Amino acid sequence: MPIDSVPLLDVQPSPPTGGPPARVFADVGPPLFEAIREGRHRKLALQVPAGLLRNAHDLAARLRTETGLPVALVARACFGACDFPSRDEAAGADAAVVLGHSPIPNVAIPMPMYFVEMRTAGGDPGHLARIVDAAGLPKRLGIVASIQHLDLLPALTTALAAVGREVRLGTGDRRLYYAAQALGCNYTTAQSVASEVDAFLFLGTGRFHPLGLAFAVDRPVWSLDPLQGTLEPPIDRARLIARRQLLVAGVRDAARWGILVSTFAGQHRGGMAAALQARAEAHGRSAEILVFGRLDPADLEGRALDAYVNTACPRIALDDFSLYPRPMLTPPEFLMALGELPLEPYRFDTYH
Asked: Helix or strand or coil: residue 2?
């Protein structure tokens, strides 16, 4: 089979048909409260990302006051819209409020959900454009943003044009709700315009998304924090890729593999795991499929396995690999280790 037609890389969740509705709101305010009251729910679950945990109890109290409903606060922080609360975590709730994320169009939800994107208009477009210009970024720029800062893009694009930059905003695949949006598992908005730009600018806070973007596109990636007005230097992509290639090379002879499968609806790729298991066996290796919800490094200790391949969120392998007792690869890296894919070009494990 030709390397470029390896089908298991496209074994992805299918778009949902029917199911509970998803509603989207910019922030926590009257439109959200009114929609919840109209929904005639019995009980709400509230899920927040790590960055909002400090305010979670105040938000839960506000929801109770404004809607008159009991609210169960999900204790664990969520990673994204792929990681919404299960029915067990929702503690009898018949609807959920999810903060900081937008829906993933091809992921079915288990109950009615209210996605609150926590949009912010923070950042002076003219000031941010002057920062980019002073740093000497290339003329042709692609921009990718976290959900909170998408509203800034039209004005920032205009301001960047005024300082001589040509901006491209890409459109993603069926997993992305908005143009120019970034997900930790999907940067197809950037990949769709990569051939038209010389560099990418990530608009948002933190290092999670720009690091993922650097893995996904072969272009320099700068990170612009619109709230602090700071521009981080470009990420050393060559170093990131070299480190992963070295890891792949080190497990080419691994005989016993563990294939990790998440039970989260937005991360579950059981079909891919089965295909990877068959590939391993075709190359004379053994492979055991291990199913989990939230993965704890301690769960993998003491096992008679040489290495793992992770079919759940790709960032588990790319960002947290040092936490695990054995090497952990993404599915494309696993095919590299088996010799079915070349080390170059590096392939990011994109969820479609």
From this structure: coil
Contact 118, 52 (CB under 8 A): yes
Which DSSP letter does residue 127 get?
A: H
Distance between CA atoms of 306 and 285, rounded to whole angstroms?
A: 11
CA Rg value for the chain: 21
Distance of alpha carbon 309 from alpha carbon 332, whole angstroms: 9
Q: Provide the residue type at 282 as one letter.
A: A
Query: What is the model's pTM?
Result: 0.89
Binned average pLDDT, 10 residues per bin, the chain of 352 residues: 38 52 92 96 92 87 96 84 79 91 88 93 93 98 96 96 98 93 94 97 93 96 96 95 96 97 88 96 97 89 96 91 94 97 94 84
Which CATH number is correct for 239-338, 3.30.1540.20, 3.40.50.300, 3.40.50.11860, 3.10.450.50? 3.40.50.11860
Q: What is the rounded CA–CA span in Å between residue 114 and residue 32?
A: 8
